[in-house]
Write a structure and sequence with these properties.
By secondary structure, the protein is of the alpha+beta class. It has 2 domains: about 5-160, Jelly Rolls (Sandwich), CATH 2.60.120; about 175-219. About 50% of the residues lie in helices and about 20% in strands. The chain has 9 helices and 8 strands. The strands form 2 sheets. A 4-stranded antiparallel beta sheet has the order 1-8-3-6, sandwiched between helices. It has a 4-stranded antiparallel beta sheet with strand order 2-7-4-5. A hairpin with a 5-residue loop joins strand 4 (about 80-90) and strand 5. The longest helix has 26 residues, at about 150-175. The radius of gyration is 18 Å and the shape is globular.
Length: about 220
């Protein structure tokens, strides 16, 4: 099994290996390009310019994308795959903050990336991840050349904090069973792709409680 340090080394090496490579339009699925353009609310042409600034990577399962004490310098568009954001307490017990599935834009730690300071959380791939990645420098340079990008970045940050607030409200207002139903709607199919202990942690319940809730839904 690779250590966290080894996985970080692999990630850095893959990014370095691709630093001079562009993502050719001929290799970009038209539907995916339109998806990116739609999310950014820009023309396909401008979306293609943005994509050409990025690097295509295939990251293995359990690749560490963020960790406390390390500054996040890469942003991603997740084409396929899933990641988990989580924290650990002093006893190294893990608490899942969020799951993210592609296709979607993602930064491993919003505060670390945009403020360029060490992360307070972990982010790890739960599956093999097919991505396009941009460095902080590349993203900021593109935004300076195309000021409309700042609107997209602001909306992305606001949405991330909206989802964080929404989950906090759910934790206080909804029962465990109701939170599980929301999870199923928010992350369709994910329950069969990730360990149940991660889902239980996300819902702030014990694994045994999750098992009972799932069994009750089946019966």
């Amino acid at each position: 099994m690779l250590s966290s340090r080894s996985r970080n080394t692999i990630l850095r090496e893959r990014i370095v290996q691709h630093k001079d490579q562009k993502t050719p339009l001929m290799n970009m699925d038209d539907r995916l390009l339109r998806k990116i353009a739609g999310i950014m609310q820009v023309s396909d042409q401008k979306a293609n310019l943005f994509v050409e600034r990025g690097k295509s990577l295939l990251l293995p399962k359990k690749t560490e994308l963020a960790a406390p004490g390390k500054t996040v310098n890469q942003s991603f568009f997740v084409i396929e795959g899933c990641v988990r954001h989580f924290v650990r307490d002093k006893q190294r017990k893990e608490f899942t903050k969020n799951f993210l599935q592609g296709p979607k834009f993602m930064v491993p730690s919003i505060t670390s990336f945009f403020m360029q300071r060490p992360s307070e959380i972990y982010c790890e791939t739960l599956t093999e991840l097919k991505v396009i990645t941009w460095s902080y420098r590349d993203l900021m340079q593109f935004a300076e050349q195309h000021p409309g990008t700042y609107s997209f970045l602001l909306k992305a940050v606001v949405r991330a904090f909206y989802l964080k607030e929404e989950k906090e409200i759910e934790m206080n207002r909804l029962s465990a069973s109701e939170r599980y139903q929301v999870f199923l709607k928010r992350h369709p199919g994910l329950i069969n792709q990730v360990p149940s202990r991660f889902v239980a942690s996300y819902l702030n319940i014990r694994p045994e409680t999750l098992s009972r809730i799932r069994a009750a839904r089946i019966s």
